[in-house]
Amino acid sequence: MKFYSRKLIKPENLNANNTLFGGSLLRWIDEEAGIYTMTKLRTQKVVTKFISEINFISSARQGDVIEIGMEFVSIGRTSITMRCLVRNLFSQKQIISIDKIVFVQVDDDENAVPHNMTIEDIKRLSS
User: Fold this and answer.
1) What's the angle, vertex CA 22, arms to CA 19 and CA 27, rounded to 5?
2) CATH 2.60.120.330 holds for 2-126
3) Is the pTM of this model over 0.85?
């Protein structure tokens, strides 16, 4: 798993319990997964298709720094699938895990289109 981005937890990211609001975290994960997909498929024309069960393991508090990791799982004709892990940068404590996030390449009308990438292409771009 490679960790691509970090976020500082600020007051505007907190819920009523003064811990990280899950919606903020999911927004960051979706953005990071989208960027990951764009770099692998070499296009900005991608959309989120599916996110599997989300396992909230622990939380983060104001001042914590978290890091978001993505890992390639598989590739389809129009899609790419990855997994995600978010952890506290300093304690390494896991915050959230998602086993499957699927993005699809689309055309201008948002119809799925083949990306013409192979597993070898993706692995080469991941190194």
Assistant:
1) 130
2) no
3) yes
CA-to-CA dists, residue 25 to 10, 72, 126, 127, angstroms: 12, 20, 24, 26
CB-count burial class (<10 Å; 0-12, 13-18, 19+) for 3:
middle
Q: Give domain limits for the chain.
A: 2-126
Cross-strand bridge partners of residue 81: 74, 102
| Pairwise CA distance, residues 28 & 95, whole Å | 13
The tens-digit pLDDT sequence of the chain (127 residues) is 999 899 999 999 999 999 999 999 999 999 999 999 999 999 999 999 999 999 999 999 999 999 999 999 999 999 999 999 999 999 999 999 999 999 999 999 999 999 999 888 887 876 5
- Cβ contact 93:59 at 8 Å: no
- Supply 56's token pair: 């909230």
Which of these, 124, 76, 120, lies nearest to 102 by C-alpha position?
A: 76
Structural tokens at position 100: 């499957």
* CB-side neighbour CA atoms (13 Å) of 79: 13
Enter the DSSP assignment of 9: -
